[in-house]
Amino acid sequence: MFGSASTASPANQTAVAYVRAQAERKRRRDEGRIRNALRDAGISADVGELCAGLRRVATLTINFHPDRIAGDGRSVVEALRVDGVYRSQFETRISSGGLTAYLGGDRDRWEERLFGGAYQASGVGAAERPRYGGLDLLNLANGACPRFGSCHLRLNQAALTRATFFVGDSVTLPDDGGVFDRLEPVLAGLLERVARGDDLGRRLTVQSLVEHLRGRETGWQAPAMSHAIDAFLEAQIHGPVTLTDDVQDLVIDPSFRGSATAEALLQAAELYGFRVRWNAGSQLAADEIPLEEPLLPESRRWAAFCAGGRAAALASSVVDRFAPDAGHLDAAALGAAAASVVREPQAWESWPDSEDALTRLKDLWHILIVYGHPAEG
Questions:
Q1: Residues 113 and 256 reside in one and the same domain
Q2: Structural domain contains residue 377
Q3: What's the pTM?
Q4: 227 and 299, same domain (yes or no)
Q5: C or N: which end of the chain has fewer Cβ atoms within 10 Å?
Q6: Do 274 and 342 belong to one domain?
Q7: Contact 377, 280 (CB under 8 A)
């Protein structure tokens, strides 16, 4: 069950096989966890039926910021349009998470733990490293992992068979990992998280999740924007992700309408033959940014950034410099600011360094997801 096996390297196949073996080893335990979660919710359901439902509703998405500048000086969308390939963090040397994708870095160590050392074997190159995305079960209009980008690719079914899935961010080295034909660990972890109140951005309950997996009408079939930044099922796609073979849809944030970024995205869609959709987007006026640290169930760096009005001050500066006509913060304004940090570092001399400035712009993006309101529709 390994899609696009002709392009999968031995390291790719070893990584997927390792996660499958771990899932198989813990299968009985995880089936018991699923039954316990269902019992606690007063639900009678067959484990196999629910795993089959998970496979039926699942879509792989890859969120990305199209206007960020990669290590070779090109924007992400320029590289996509010209190369026709979505590259790994180890190749681009950029990330919407942590910048640790290098030998001996945190990302390298996490992958060693998650995939049994498959990518640390002699001769394995950067191009073989997995691409990161999310498993969308609820038709999220801004993708499964909006924290990692304003636009997203929706991949075809074949890509699912060469992916691995974990309940939680790989930063935390999650234990519940599976593959498309062995999803018991994913379902067990998902049910337990939902029971604890993690709703994946759609006000999900154990009951409504089970109904959804059974194919019954729940309302989750209609697209909706997620305001959650930490509630996602992480996916890693092993082997190349090509725009021709693997992409079914491209979803674009409306803040890019009429821009060179949108034009390049539309050209890529026409060139490589996938569909284009637009989501509702997200925007905030600078005076809508929280002025104090919001009360949250867990500590977040960006929440502390709100204290004392620091986030609002940066938002106001970004709007004034990069979106004076629009008058609000959105994905395009933040992207223009991030590009400026890379290409005009002298304009950001008030920041300790360019990495700090990019981190704070990333914080503003997370705030925009959580507090933003639709730009369209």
A1: yes
A2: no
A3: 0.93
A4: no
A5: C
A6: no
A7: yes
Res 353 pLDDT > 70:
no
- Write the DSSP assignment of 111-126 as a string of letters: HHHHTTTGGGSTT--G
Task: For Cα atoms 342, 147, 283, give the angle at the middle one, nearest 5 degrees.
Answer: 85
Amino acid at 150: S
Segments forming the whole domain that contains residue 355: 286-371
Are 237 and 336 members of one domain?
no
User: Do the beta carbons of residue 199 and residue 231 sit within 8 Å?
Assistant: yes
With cut-offs at 50, 70 and 90, classify the pLDDT of residue 5.
very low
Domain count along the chain: 2
Last residue within a domain, chosen from 225, 260, 278: 278
342-373 b/e (C-beta count within 10 Å ≥ 16 → b): beeeeebeebeeeeebbbbbbbbbbbbbbebe
pLDDT digits (tens, 9 = 90+) for 33-76: 999 999 999 999 999 999 999 999 999 999 999 999 988 899 99
Query: Is the pLDDT score of 239 beyond 90?
Result: yes
Q: Which two three-digit tokens encode residue 292? A: 């104090």
237 - beta bridge partners? 131, 163
Cα separations (Å) of 275 from 154, 229, 244, 249, 355? Answer: 10, 26, 11, 5, 35
Task: Tell me the three state secondary structure of residue 309.
Answer: helix
Q: Which of 228, 245, 278 is the last residue of a domain?
A: 278
- 3-class DSSP state of 176: coil
d(CA 46, CA 375): 42
Do 295 and 269 sit in the same domain of this protein?
no
H helices present in the chain, as ranges: 10-25, 27-40, 47-57, 76-83, 89-92, 106-114, 157-160, 184-195, 206-213, 243-246, 260-272, 301-306, 310-322, 331-343, 354-371
